[in-house]
């Protein structure tokens, strides 16, 4: 019998985006937030598939890890069938709640927070390049949520046939309040304000709405989604370890790595497991945390250096993969207009894009305004969008003496995606 959870949910498109690519689930005992990426054509598709398949899978199975893997596979297969959806993906942070316990499955940079006894604790780790750099001491933690590259994901659903899933098993207490949210919340307001709202609003629905309102009021640069769940009193006490049933019910993955408690909540209340069916190379951080403390110190240092090198390579590979898979832009290549798959620039020495197609259109034949934007890279929502922008630029050159101002103001067919278009950052 499902306990009677009190819950609330909210999702807003914000003030900048044209489409809400977030999706949410509030169907006790299941709750989830998904933040899609891949442009207007596909981010919302990916997040919707994630929620739909996740919920459906748990009607057939009792494994939250399997449910996330099923969602990943469904998105990947859908993208493989439709070129317009190539590179789409989504985050997923989901909770399966029960009396006195909960499982949280997590991939990407949406988050789960726990409010308990006046303390707000983050339960999930962001799978982002920026978070990796924080762990390496190259970025201060307080700068991470406002970092311009904070949305570069290291893990997402739908990008690869297999995905590594973090599963957190928690002991819950009466009065605990859990928040699931997309990065449109904590990217706009800090944790202190999040905690204040959660403490001030007794109604979970009002709390969810207030959080959305605060994010929009702070600028609304991204879609924002919140799900707030209040845990009821435990009605039975027969189980000495309320989490044991979840652990027993979990499938036996090909690789199961215990990575230790997260956050600063009471020690022992959160156990973190990482589920992967594909047995990819362990991430350096996790490998280092599980290396033997009995090894000689010199060997340990060599190991740290090797792992650090692997960390850079893995980070670069992930960035390149995510960039190449999900982003497009039109830029300059050797004086010619070209289509690139990825993002302009580089990170940690890794180029974030590869050349898709170099056209015969000379960049210098375009108005100066467009030449400048080409050097920065004109963002496209898909390969088709990028080709349309090139076609529009070709028309621009062929048309008789258009002024840059006229073109920017919407006369050019490319204006919607070109220099005058608003930024549309990745998920
Ligand atoms: Mg987002």
Helix vs. strand class: alpha+beta
The name of the CATH topology of the largest domain is: Phosphatase 2c, domain 1
Q: Give the overall shape.
A: elongated
Bound molecules: magnesium ion
Low-confidence sequence ranges = 237-270, 278-298, 400-427
Q: Mind telling me which CATH architecture of the largest domain this is?
A: 4-Layer Sandwich
CATH superfamily of the largest domain: PPM-type phosphatase domain
N-to-C SSE string, H for helix and E for strand: EEEHHEEEEEHHEEHHHEHEEHHEEEHEHH
Give the biggest sheet: 8 strands, antiparallel
Tell me the radius of gyration. 23 Å
Number of strands: 17
Number of domains: 2
Work out the strand percent. Answer: 25-35%
**Cα end-to-end separation:** 37 Å
Q: Tally the helices: what do you get? A: 13
* Chain-averaged pLDDT: 76
Helix content, binned percent = 25-40%
